[in-house]
Amino acid sequence: MSTRTETESEPAKRRAARAVSTGAGSLPTAPCSVVWSKGHAYVLEGFRARWVGVDDRGRPQALSGEQLQRRGWSRTRSH
């Protein structure tokens, strides 16, 4: 009997952590996808293909995919 237990979600979390490195990989393409950049959430507007969020002062901000790649992004808020 083993005392070590590993859930199925642990390997998935490790794979996700490797894939999420800032600026690496490609941005999601599904409308309403959410990514994080510099502590702010950005949502993909499908009909305009732009990422919409707010700046540090709460003002609306729209970024292209290229701008978001340069700023760095992740799928989780931890970045």
Automatic annotation (TrEMBL):
Extract the ranges annotated as region (Disordered): 1-31, 55-79
Where along the chain is composition biased (Basic and acidic residues)?
1-13
Q: Which protein is depicted?
A: Uncharacterized protein
